[in-house]
Fold this protein.
Amino acid sequence: MIKIKNMKVRWREHEAVLIIMIAAIFIAGYTVQMLSLTPQQIKTEYAVDFVRANTTFSYFGRVLLPQTGSILFLLLCYFWINWLIVPRLSSPGKKSVGTFLLAALQFLVIVYLTGPLVNFISFYINPYYLSNPAYQSYIPLTFGSHPQPYKNSFGGIGEAFTLIFAYAVYAGFREAVIKFMEARESRRTYRIFILNQITVFLAVFFAAPVFTSTFHLVINPAYYNGYFAFIPPVLLTFTTNTYVLFPLKGERTFFRWQLTAPLLLSTFIYMLFFSMFLGSDWSIVTLLCCWAVLLFVISPISWLDFQQRKDKILQLRGVEKELVKSKADLQFLRSQINPHFLFNALNTLYGTALVEGSKNTAEGIQKLGDMMRFMLHENNQDFIRMDKEIEYLRNYIALQKLRTQLSPDISVDESIDEHNCDCLIAPMLLIPFIENAFKHGISLKERSWIKIRLGCDEENIIFEVRNSVHQKQENDPEREHSGIGLKNVQERLLLLFKGKQQFIYGIEGDEFVARLTIPKIKERMIKVKLF
């Protein structure tokens, strides 16, 4: 069973792990270098300049400490940005001017720390800065330096500003993506799952070359060119195939243009874009060979991996749809079988029986029974025949008319045309609009009306509901609530039709109007899993 509760985007965490890994690799590399040097090497490669400058020297104080200090300062600035600045700027709610000014001030401090301060620490091993009085006079209480001959305490400020600004843009992009992913309802968990997989891989992807270069495991530059040119297309091909293309295959043959065309195009684009890292080694032959590897090696491997995890992936793709459907069905069921509705129905039947005898009472009970039967049986299916849905709508309208027929100021006009409606529909997809109309459009003190139109053309189901608008009472508990199930309906529409639907609602004059146009679903479309 897949646990999806509280699944969140882990981009920040994976990035932090990557940064800590890189810092640890650098510090470990500096330490290993110190331990591998012989006393003679330390003397000839490092100590000689300090001896000439009549300055005391120790490898730990003059080399290792400045090296590790630079890394730790950069790590401190990274966490400063991501723990103090970004959360304040990305948190919900309106931001004050002071918030932005404080962030800007911290931004400038970090620029100074990552520029002049880190530069000075990094070049502390150079005795030239310590032995030349002309340059020492420029060193302020806070450190400052520059890789070039030391001029002032702001050396390197431009490079640091560019670096921090670039990271700020990246962090803003990251936060926008995270907010977008966590806010979306449609396949939210599935998309977050894929993004988390990608960020984990990227953390390993960037840590690997840092490790090999720091410990001098691979020196040939051609290795790194090939690494950055080929590994990203492999990742993208694997991800696209496993989570996008292969789940859509179903039971159909693999060799269909709907599958092979996206596969060919995506792999070629990935390889073409990242092949620029090959530099002088780039050639059309190399590009085609790498593309062939993606097609004939990586794609089959990704297919085998998909087959191994097929049930989990398909379950994760469908679980959100089932959760939304279950949530919507529960909401619909509650809106139908709640004390207010049942009491109103029973009171209507009781009042009608007193006035007119048993004919309308029996009719009302029959319609109520048909509706209950529909909810118990038809509502459990993914799709039902359109005539079943129409029958439920008519029973509901007829039952509500029994309640309103004695009031001359209430008009209920329905026009339901079943012609051309030989299609399927998700059960109880239309009833919330009519429920809203009767709930919000009927007033016992004012003239009220409801107009319902339903029909089908060759390609679409066209549905419109209009109702009169009335001022709600101050003590009405539903005053601040929107219509019954509208949010659930929107979620179901998005899951079912993926943007092919047209849904417009709002107040027009003295009426509330809801218009819905959805594509007709044929039985053959269900068999090939187009919906």
Observations:
- The beta strands are 384-385, 410-416, 424-425, 448-456, 460-468, 502-508, 511-519.
